[in-house]
Amino acid sequence: MATTKTPVDNGVNVQALLDAREALKKAPEAAQFQWRATCKWVYGTHSRSTIMRFFGLGQEQQHKTETSFSADHPEIFASEDKGITPVEYLLVGLASCLTAGVAAVAQNRGIQIRSIESKVEGKMDIRGILGVDSDVRNGYDDIKVTFTIDADASKEDIEALVAQSQKRSAVYDAITNPVNVTVEVA
Amino acid sequence: MATTKTPVDNGVNVQALLDAREALKKAPEAAQFQWRATCKWVYGTHSRSTIMRFFGLGQEQQHKTETSFSADHPEIFASEDKGITPVEYLLVGLASCLTAGVAAVAQNRGIQIRSIESKVEGKMDIRGILGVDSDVRNGYDDIKVTFTIDADASKEDIEALVAQSQKRSAVYDAITNPVNVTVEVA
């Protein structure tokens, strides 16, 4: 009996990514990207950041729409809670980067994904930012990401998807390894 | 002639933060926070992350409202651009953290802020994430933040505000120094 195999569709155009990889081997200057945000203080600890333009493939690029993001501190810090905290934005970036990677790697490996869910938990001792104890760091002590994935694959294959996503994740790298940041006043 | 001095009002309740600092000196366990996000894959490289609950001051806490954030890749990566990229969320976190810090430090130093604007630029060589060259890192090579601040203070005092904000910034620390991240499949 002939069986019909439905092609795997996770919605990731892997061929385009493989083509880009080949093209950038010969044109490393096109691989130099610059991502940008602008931020305006509103009042208190509330600010609004806007994302629209970036640079890549040798020219100015832009998103389809401009998006703005409020950040604030919660009420327990005597603030207005008009947005999530700055440190929570890191968790959004980390979870979304790893998730996109899992879908892309699965597409490349011919594994159909049905669902990917994750929870991210970041531990922080706020005695750091409050200046209580100089031995306590300001940022996260550690972050744990736990995935629950439903896919046409064994537990081992699913774990391998996650491991490969982690290996190629821009945000995972930026958080786990030092990034040079310079801050200036114009 | 008597002059009336308007009290500095940047909207930051510095007294509450100083009180918290004193209280946490005696109760370090209350300073242990856990920030959380949950993320669901939508399709392709598009995901949606949700932020609502966190833990701190010894108990479960929550934001006033639940907020969701879409992340995706742009059209030049053959994606749908249904949200900003995961790496751009790091820039939002960095800019908003430093901005809140400037307003808070200025309040503590009696400096009236009129405006704080910043632009953030993060350089990334995408040959890393595409696996073109294993010597190229996945994350940012470097990030530059440039502030433009209008305040009742000298250039030197404004630069000192920014330096102190940087010194106490949770996101600046998390990006410039290594954070331990563990990724698991449930």
Describe this entry's structure for a reader.
2 copies of one chain form a homodimer. With 186 residues, the first copy, chain A, is an alpha+beta fold. Chain A is 30% helix and 35% strand. Chain A has helices at residues 14-26, 86-108, 155-167, 170-176; strands at 32-43, 46-56, 59-71, 113-125, 142-151, 180-185. In chain A, the strands form 2 sheets. In chain A, strands 1-2-3 form a 3-stranded antiparallel sheet, with no helix packed on it. Chain A has a two-stranded antiparallel ribbon with strand order 4-5. In chain A, helix 2 packs across helix 4 (170-176). At the A-B interface, helix 1, strand 1, strand 2, strand 3 and helix 2 of A face helix 1, strand 1, strand 2, strand 3 and helix 2 of B. Strand 6 (180-185) of chain A pairs parallel with strand 5 of chain B, so a sheet runs across the interface.
SSE arrangement:
The structure is a homodimer of 186-residue chains.
Chain A: H1 14-26, E1 32-43, E2 46-56, E3 59-71, H2 86-108, E4 113-125, E5 142-151, H3 155-167, H4 170-176, E6 180-185
Antiparallel strand pairs in A: 1-2, 2-3, 4-5
Helix pairs in contact in A: 2-3, 2-4
Determine the fraction of residues in helical runs of chain A and give it as a percent range: 25-40%
Q: Write down the secondary-structure element order of chain A.
A: HEEEHEEHHE
Could you list the spans of chain A in which at least 5 consecutive residues all have pLDDT below 50?
none
Structural class assignment of chain A: alpha+beta
Overall form of chain A: globular
* Overall mean pLDDT of chain A: 95
Number of helices of chain A: 4
State the end-to-end CA separation of chain A. Answer: 72 Å
- The main sheet of chain A orders its strands as 1-2-3
| Largest two-chain interface | A-B, 126 and 125 residues
Largest β-sheet summary of chain A? 3 strands, antiparallel
Assembly context of the chains: homodimer
